[in-house]
Amino acid sequence: MVSFSRLTIRNFKRFAGEHDIRLKGDGRVTIIAAQNGVGKTTTMDAIHVALYGKRGFSSLYPEGDFHKWLEAAYSVEGKGDRHILLALDIDDPIQGTIRISRTYWLMGEEYGGVEEEVGVEISGKPLPREPGESRTGLAERWIEDYLPHAAMRRFLVDGERLNDLDPKRIDDEIVRGIDDVIGIGLLHRLKHHLNSTKRSTLRALTPEDQIDSVSKLLDLLEKYKEEKGASKSQLEACQSVLEASNSRIVEIQEEIENLTREGGSKNAKLRLDYAIRQSELTSSRRDVHQHLMESLPFVVAGLPSDLSEWQIEEVIAEKRSSERIEEQVEFLR
């Protein structure tokens, strides 16, 4: 069983100078318990950064700036060159003692900011490098193959950050854990080893004057594979958003149809009420017109106290006489 045996810290936060912290005990689980402010979270941060560098920091502080964090993490009591050393010793029953170390040189913005040195030693010997391969790139790939970051996140737990666990990703974390238990995680690591062997074989078969070109092509291939995976994940996320948007559109359409249906019945009732009121208004206008043409003139003119002044009877007799004359003339025609 692989186990962490010792953590070395130099000039990191409260640890001024160099400190060795023994991690290995008699049990299968190591628990660091202490009062607040003693350095439990600092120790956990040191383990994450020692193993994975900036990637380990980003998993702990997604919104943080790694270089600014390192500048602030340098011990105020540190002496000599401004640098931070984080190293982790691992006991492996097959390979022996493995030491993973990272040194960060804090030179200031005017001299390039922060420089990182990462190294892996197995039984005191550094990893053998292939032609054209950088020490940093080799170490990063070896660490990821040996201790995958996704797996270690489940074994390194800070009790003060339990609330930071994302429930939306817990299913993926469980799946990865099951993969590691049943051996699928090993298949992924073997795939990385096969890719490394493939690169070495291609370099060995390539003429010396074309090694750089082949290396660049292989790097581009890996880059495009990563971009393809990222694009695929982004596409899946966009498809989920599209499905949610389509569902929302259907809901809105149903709401509009319901509102239109309710509004249609209300509009029909309004039209019927309008027709009734219009008919009543027409009838009222007719009555008003009749009053204006018949009764109102007499009311406006006023009635005399003696109706004989208007000679109504003579007017009526004359009117009747005129009608009889008209009838007789019409008869003679």
Question: Which features characterize this protein?
Answer:
333 residues; alpha+beta; Rossmann fold; 6 strands; ATP hydrolysis activity; P-loop_NTPase; coiled coil
Characterise the protein shown here:
- The structure is a single chain.
- The chain is of the alpha+beta class and 333 residues long.
- The protein has three domains: 164 residues, Rossmann fold (3-Layer(aba) Sandwich), CATH 3.40.50.300; 40 residues, no CATH class; 83 residues.
- Helix content is 57%, strand content 16%.
- It is built from ten helices and six strands; from the N terminus they run ββαααββββααααααα.
- A six-stranded antiparallel β-sheet has the order 2-1-3-4-5-6, with helices on one face.
- Strand 3 and strand 4 form a beta hairpin.
- Helix 4 packs antiparallel against helix 7.
- It comes from marine metagenome.
- One of its GO terms (molecular function) is ATP hydrolysis activity.
- One of its GO terms (biological process) is double-strand break repair.
- InterPro entries: P-loop_NTPase, Rad50/SbcC_AAA.
